[in-house]
Amino acid sequence: MRVEQLETPCLLLEREILERNVARMAEFFRERPAKIRPHFKTHKCTRVARAQVEAGSLAGITCAVVGEAEVLVAAGFEDLLIANQVLGAEKLRRLAELNSRADVKVCVDAREQVEMLSAAARAAGVEIGVLAELDVGMARCGVDDSAALLELAGQVGAAEGLCFRGLQGYEGHACFITDAGERRRAAEAAAGKLAGARRDLEAAGVGVNIVSAGGTGTYDVTGLIEGIDELQVGSYALMDGRYRTVRQDFENALFLLSSVLSVHGERAVFDVGYKSAGAEMRPPAVVGLDGEPGGFKLNEEHLRLDGVGGRFRVGQKVRMIPWHGCTTCNLYPRFHVVDGEEVVDEWAIEGAGLRS
Hints:
Shape: elongated
Structural class: alpha/beta
Number of helices: 10
Mean pLDDT: 97
């Protein structure tokens, strides 16, 4: 089948570009102490995750919610980290059940979470690995300092059914800083705080097996800091418009295919809207459109571009680059895997729509 025969909107995945991106990241860490734990939340596709495993340099797989971990365990993945706090009796039951079949670690930043995890582990007769989270500048989850981490580690160590495995810290505040020098300084400060916390805990006699951090925007900074064991890189495999503003070493493999619905004067309207594109920050960009449009308006089912008269025709199909790949992939059941203009396969996005 040709790409032009596909119904729109839909997702295209350029197989050769994906393979190059995955190989490039794996090669960077091939001979380095740190390894990668690719984030499943980006593509939510076990076929992509399998390609990342096969490329090597892996510590395991990262995911965001229990449902993603369930998808991965069902597909045979055995070393997972839910880089998040998990609460709620049913979600904790599901997490504990997964640990009867795989090593599914989770993060904590409060005593109450430790107590709930312990109760779920005891009820299921399993042991759950736990990472304590340090806030390294994101101002989201995580405790503030080594003293709080040491207290958390003690609580985990004393809790039946739990095993303290290490630390997590995510420098997401640094990943999209456009100035490379400023981005490096912010990432080094964040990773330095996390590595310092590891030293503090080890000096206090607490064993730290895993220190997990990082993202695509800072992999070549955080990944070189002594004391950081693994990088939770995700977007590098598919890329998107936002990450391309700071990382030119990986290529766009992910595209939206859209149709031109209407052309009047200087405006053109496409069949892509909030319901079909992760556009919470900016709309997708049309491939090959020189310069910025004169303006845009995004609705549920439509994207209107202004100042593009004469460049599009009704019925034309165009590729677009999503600004945010993670939230775009979450909206679709499959990738149409393509080689240029030929559709060569379909890969299910098994984790699409999972929120818990």
